[in-house]
Amino acid sequence: QGGFQLGLMRKDLETAGSIAAETGFDAKALALCRMLWTDAMAELGPRADNTEIHRYLGGVR
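Request: output the structure for the sequence above.
Response:
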């Protein structure tokens, strides 16, 4: 059972991305996660449970 929304996780990823940019940290994996999470949220909606990311990623090619 999840209970944490995709939109909330995306907000956290954006915060982490901002911190990485401000500190000059090269966060390629974080950038990929942010992109995939944003795409999943666009398809599933921001209120979808964060566990839905697994189903979404299963369909990404």
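The helical segments are 6-23, 28-44, 52-59.
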